[in-house]
Design brief:
By secondary structure, the chain is of the alpha+beta class. The chain has helices at 12-22, 32-35, 49-63; strands spanning 3-7, 27-31. Helices cover 47% and strands 16% of the residues. The radius of gyration is 13 Å and the shape is globular.
């Protein structure tokens, strides 16, 4: 069984791109909505793109 990587995105294009990269390496890439269908997005309270990316990554990691 392939290890599963949960992608914290709704963007179908990004999901397809990650799947095409990760699946040949033995990983199953799934959207966070495939794991928790009704999950809400965290509020982006960071001052920079990087801070918001870390906030979202931590939020989805804890949720899944």
């Amino acid at each position: 069984m392939a290890e599963k990587i949960v992608l914290a995105t709704h963007n179908a294009g990004k999901i397809r791109e990650f799947k095409s990269i990760l699946e040949p390496l033995g990983y199953e890439a799934v959207s966070v909505h495939d794991v928790i269908a009704d999950i809400t997005e965290p509020e982006e309270t960071g001052k920079t793109f990087a801070e918001n990316a870390l906030l979202k990554a931590s939020y989805y990691m804890k949720a899944t």
